Every structure is written in structure tokens, then in C-alpha cells.
Here is the input.
Amino acid sequence: MFLRISGRVRLNSHSLNAQGGGGTNYVEITKAKVSIKDNDKWKILEVPAISGNMVKHWHFVSFVDFFRETDYKNNLTERALRYNGARFGQETKAKKADGSEVELKDESKIIKNFADADVHGFLAPKTGVRRVSLVKTSFMLPTEDFIKEADERLVYTVKHNRVDIDEKGAIKSGEEQTAQMLFNREYATGLYGFEIILDLGFVGVPQSSPSNPVIEDDERKARIESALKALIPMLSGYIGANLARSFPVFKLEEMIAVASEKPIPALVHGFYEDYVEVSKNIVENAKKLGFNIEAFGYKVDFGESISSVEELISKIIEKL
Here is the structure.
């Protein structure tokens, strides 16, 4: 199963991707530069951004959660249980969720034993074995039409304070008066575009020597279903940093998706104001070339109408 998704979400008062404060009391939100054409003139603007690394991490988190509910829950790296999706270190062996060890010398053996390394890719620098991730995520960026129309700045600062009290309930003072400390954190608001690619038709198939899957059909289906279901929490706002104190005011505004049993072209990123129109042309032309594609649209005229992300995932899983 190969799935491509593009869409737009409305985000209010979010701090989904911060780049630290360098030891200061000011936490800055991540920013990126985008090019837009306004009144026939090109402009380069700095905007708040959510990195693809952040998006991919939260897909990884939900993938692990869903896969742990299957009969194959121990076929994960031990570190995946801590939601650590970083590459392997300098070791030549890695631990599984059940504590056993697997040598990192052969891609087939690694993906057979580690579902997270199979779906999200890996690099074992000591042995030189690697695998490209089957999940590919773009930056989430304020859309070009929103940037043109917005009459307020997209990033603003909120002042917070931390208060520590003593055993009598009073704010500590004197040498400990830093217990009442002010700090500033940046937040952003806007309409954001995103794009996600899932090449799940390659689950269980070695990239170094493509052939048949090296895992059983039932486990392969469990891995694919877990990767698909992991999209649901992400696209309902379970994503990003600072969730405990500022869970994002998140709403999926619109979405398009295409699915096929074979590799298919990517859609246009939701950043662009004409992404639905251009993506529709891509799909129509791909079908003329022989691609077998199913298209779905949420709140837009694009293929079969769906009412939610859950319905999209359900329809795709039914075809596995």
C-alpha cells in the first residue's frame, strides 16, 4: 500500500517546535523561510515552522503504541519502548523489546526483528547497514494565501511564571526567591499546510536486495495497519513539543489523499493555495499513464468524499 496525503490544519496558540533558549528565559519557536509571489513580486519571508523531524517523531510514537497492541509487540527495538527513534550507535548488536539481542550486519535480519527499523528506517554506522524510511514527512508551514491575507504577525510571546512555595504555602524568598521566575515563550497562530508520504508497500522488503517480504503476511499486515493508524493521533493534534502546558488548538481544515498498491506520484504540498487543483491534474494524468489510483477528499472536491481521517484509514485498511 502506497499512500500520499496533503492538507491544511488550523493551529492556534501553538508552540509545536521550539529551538531552545540557550540557557535564557526566552524560548524561541522554530522558523523557516518561504518564497511567495504577491502582486507579481517575489518575496522571501520568515515564518513559524514545524519541522518534518517533529512530524515524523510523533508518527513514530503512535506507530510504536499501536504495534505494541499486536501479537508481534516484541519485534521492536528496546529503545522504541522509550519512543527513541534515533539511529543505532556504534554497537554491532541491538536489544529487542524482550531483551534478546540481534546482530546489525544484515538488513533482512534487522527488519525481520525490528518493526520500527523496518517502517521508519535505520542506520547502523558501525556495520554500514542502512535503510531509508518508508515514512516521509515535510515541514508544516503557514500557507501562502494565509501569509498574504494575515494582517497580524504570526509569532507572539507569552510571559509565564514558575512559582515554588514552602511548606507553609508561602512563596519562597531570600536566597530562594528565584523560585518565582518569569520566562517567555513564543507561540504562533495560522493556517498550516502539510504533506506525508507512506511507502508501506515496501514493509518487510529489503531495500539492499528487493525481493519478497522477509516477514510473514500477518505480521506485515500488522506493521502496515499500525503505520496507517498512527496518522490518526497526529492529525488530531497529538504532535509537537510543550504538549503538557500548551496542547495545540488544532483543527483539520481539509485534506486530500491518494492510495495504490504500487508506487505513485506525490501530491502537491498543502502550503500552496492551488494544491488541490494541481494535485487533481497529477492524479488524472497518472491514471492516463496506467497508474491505478484511488483518491479521497475531506472537505474538498477531490475523489471520494470522506468525513474524517478515521474513515480514510478504515477504507484503506479494508483493502489490505
About this structure: Residues 2-20+49-140+190-318 form one domain. The radius of gyration is 22 Å.
